[in-house]
Amino acid sequence: MPDPQPPSKEVFDEYSSIPHPDAFPEALKLLKKFLTDTTIPWQSNGTKNDIELYFYSPEDPPLPAPICRGVGTFPEGLTAEQILPVMHQIACRKIWDERFKLGFPTLRYSRKLVRFYAVQKGVGEWVVIVSPRDFTGYSGHVKEVGEDGVTRYFYLQTSSDFDDLPPVDGFVRGWSSVAGWVLEEKPGEPVKCSYIVQFDPKGSIPSAIISQVIKETPLCIYKVRNFIEQRGLVPHVRMHDEFPGQLRQEYLTIEDAVVNPETGETLTETGFQFTFSWFGAVGSFDINFDEKWENGVKIDIEEGKVDEDFELKSSKDRVTVTVKEAGKDKKLKLVVSKA
């Protein structure tokens, strides 16, 4: 049967009401507990690719799968806001998470909170050992500045049930209490990253595969780091900047580099295309891109009129968008790619 498809773009022309207002805050609270509670007896699962791996198996009550955690750092010079879009953009995740099959937002609640649908691949092609798992829930961002001088960026997902997202034939509906990233930023130090997951896969999965998943999942930190090292930064609007207007959609599409298999020569570089649409409000914001893009970016205007509704000003690593009075409440849409 065909894979589930994302909703029409018109769904994102308004912010929806949240049917489970406590779900995301409770998941954030749980993530913070796993991050800071020194009484949790984390057990080492070794170190791989400079990522420290841990797991925790509570006895009361016992869990279907151990909680897993990874801890690592990103190269100096990278900021949390540059790393975040590689974590949350679906097109990026399809590259750095080999178990990820598909995913998309289904509703938007605010600039930083959406409802999501996602599918993890099963195991086995001719003989299905593990069925694919799908998940529904909330996905969002929180930024906090601690008394210790550390700025923490939380990006997490948590499961919830929705009447209009029933189980899908061929998939087992899994449950994630929390799947959360924490980026810790302190002046003069590289960004520290923790990735913590507590989930119930539901259904039947061999214990050997569960053990493998628990050990490999925290290595997503390394895979995100490797993505940036190999492909560079992706264009984005900083998640935690003040944004004038109401976001409709922001998404990335990626065309992989083409390499000559005989010589290893790169024929075409990785192509990023960033689409950003919103209802205009008077004010400015930046679309950021990799400063290594020597020729800057190409901007296609799909909705709105430049100079009438907004102005564009390019610099070394960003395009500043300034919306005028004429652009207020209008549908505006830009597509940004490497020049």
From TrEMBL:
Domain spans labelled START: 26-214
Protein name: START domain-containing protein
Organism placement in taxonomy: Eukaryota, Fungi, Dikarya, Ascomycota, Pezizomycotina
Molecular function as annotated in GO: lipid binding
Ranges in coiled-coil conformation: none
GO-annotated cellular components: cytoplasm
Short name of any one Pfam family annotated for the protein: START
CDD domains: START (cd00177)
Stored SUPFAM superfamilies: Bet v1-like
Source organism, top-level taxon: Eukaryota
Species in which this protein is naturally found: Orbilia ellipsospora
InterPro entries listed in its UniProt record: START-like_dom_sf, START_lipid-bd_dom, START_lipid_transfer
